[in-house]
Design a protein that fits this description.
alpha/beta; 15% strand; TIM Barrel; 330 residues; 11 helices
């Protein structure tokens, strides 16, 4: 089967843009992705980040789905501990009712923010020993037709055609995805260190389910592509600066390449940056084809999810074009 390719969009706020402009860009990106043959377009739930506007993930999913026609749209992911499972079932059941057969529900258990903000989000429901597996099964119950006789039902939601995906960056998530027989999406775009061992665990322990007969591996990586290697590296400085800002807790919108200060970072930050960026691929079409051919051979994904911060909107769309051409040729 041909390798599928998709996009993770954080609705990144770049310097000089407001929220409305950011959402307009996401719409245009999704429409462009649809034309390029991308399979799905996901948003990830983040909170309290001045450069990320995807906090109300389900609302944004609905807006993007309304502006496209065939593209699957979903979450990569909803941070389940921040919500009641009933609420998630109702939201995504509503989305499925509006856009049948086009909605994905990727689930994570990280807070998607700092712990102070997580506490504010969850209020009295904050639980440091959150049972992710239990709540996934509870969500599956609400989405199933078998819940029709229950006292508490998800309307909309019950019987909705919304596939679930387990997101993760650790071996714990790999074991869980395998146990539940669900597709597994690994976040190698920011936490690649356990990628290889997590995929081995998922493959070895996978148990077929009513949802999936065999393992389905999705890997999110960063791709910064341009028509020349030099231009790609120039554009990538905004992306690497965003990583540095995370590491140093300097929260601000995405900066243009000319305002980045990567030469001034400490050795310690540089070490962590290199670890975070281990699965960031920068280059022109020829360079990326060589790198991604090896990546495909090493990890054997069923689907590559493309992420990556580029300040200039038109250059970002060109990067998607090159990425789609390269992945289709693998």
């Amino acid at each position: 089967m041909a390798l599928k390719y998709s996009i993770l969009d954080l609705a990144t706020i770049v310097k000089g843009d407001d929220i409305n402009k950011t959402f307009q860009k996401s719409v245009k990106s999704a429409q462009h992705a649809e034309q390029l043959g991308f399979t799905r377009y996901w948003f990830s739930e983040h909170h309290n980040f001045p450069n990320v506007a995807s906090a109300s993930t389900s609302i944004l999913i609905g807006h993007i789905a309304s502006q496209t026609t065939t593209l699957r749209v979903g979450s990569g992911g909803i941070m389940l501990p921040n919500h009641s499972t009933l609420s998630v079932a109702e939201q995504f059941g509503t989305l499925d009712g509006l856009f049948p057969g086009r909605i994905d529900l990727g689930l994570g258990r990280a807070p998607g923010t700092d712990m102070l903000t997580a506490t504010a989000l969850r209020g009295n429901n904050f639980n440091p020993n959150y049972n992710f597996e239990f709540h996934i099964k509870e969500l599956q119950k609400y989405l199933s037709n078998e819940n029709a006789e229950a006292k508490v039902r998800a309307i909309p939601g019950e019987g909705a055609d919304v596939p679930l995906y387990i997101l993760g960056s650790s071996t714990d998530s790999a074991f869980l995805a395998a146990k539940l027989g669900l597709p597994y999406a690994f976040a190698a775009h920011f936490a690649p260190s356990q990628l290889e061992v997590a995929l081995e665990i998922y493959g070895e322990h996978f148990q077929p389910s009513e949802f999936l007969d065999e393992p389905y591996v999705m890997i999110c990586i960063n791709i910064i592509a341009a028509d020349s290697v030099d231009e790609a590296h120039y554009l990538s400085t905004s992306h690497f600066q965003a990583f540095v800002n995370i590491l140093t807790d300097q929260r601000q919108p995405l900066l243009p390449p000319d305002e980045t200060e990567l030469a001034d970072i400490s050795d310690e930050v540089a070490l962590h940056l290199n670890r975070m960026a281990a699965k960031t691929f920068v280059g022109d079409k020829e360079t990326l084809k060589e790198k991604l051919t090896k990546f495909k051979k090493d990890y054997k994904p069923d689907e590559i999810i493309v992420s990556g911060n580029i300040f200039d909107f038109d250059k970002k769309q060109r990067s998607y074009e090159i990425a789609s051409e390269v992945i289709k040729s693998l």
